[in-house]
Amino acid sequence: IRVRVVPGAGLGRLAYDVAKPASFAFQGNEFSHSMVLSSTESIGEHTIYPSIHSFWNIHYKDALLRPVKTPDVLPSDLPPGSHFYLVAGGFEEIYRAEDTDKSEPHTGQWDAVLACFFIDTAKNIVNYLHVIHRILAPGASGIWINIGPLLWHFENNNTNDPSIELDLEEVKALMRQMGFRLSVRTRFTFSLLLTRCVGFD
To answer: Per-residue pLDDT tens for 66-86?
Structure first.
């Protein structure tokens, strides 16, 4: 199965977990070159304190100083035959928002797109949805699994970049107009993040 954990692959942990079964191929995409180029030599090489600067989502005071060792896995530990790639660059830049060239190499080439905390990073959600729809295998064989909030990163930006912010119902209506078929829609709250998220595939 050709799986792409597309947007915001970050340091690649979701990608790693998807690529681990040798039957899956993974190509991740991350805008931040520093994320893609971050390399590590050993398990637990770095210690971070993710809550030390903020009281946001703190369940108890001791959590402020709780250290986290990272990484807890190494990509080099993937079994032989695993296909795991990270591609640096903007999502639209790499996978092209234009639909004029049907011979574009990503058109219809991916069985699944996994988007985790990503679609709200779009300045133009229409372009993101267009790209995702185009790169999926045609018909019922292509599936998009999405999880994350609609926090719209460019809303109220101080650079005056234009952006489009839609509510969930508008996003779903736009998806249907583009040819997506929403088969499951789940709304839930993460107990650790306390963030309302939306999932659809």
So the answer is: 898 888 887 777 777 777 777
DSSP states of the chain as a string? -EEE--S--TTSHHHHHHHSSTT-EEEEEES-HHHHH---SSTT-EEE-TTTT--TT-SSGGGGG--EEE-SS-GGGSPTT-EEEEEES-HHHHH-S--S-TT-TTTT-BSEEEEES-GGG-S-HHHHHHHHHHHBPTGGG-EEEEEE----TTTT-TT--------HHHHHHHHHHHT-----EEEEE-TTT--EEEEE-
| pLDDT tens digits along 123-138 | 899 999 999 998 888 8
Record the pTM.
0.76
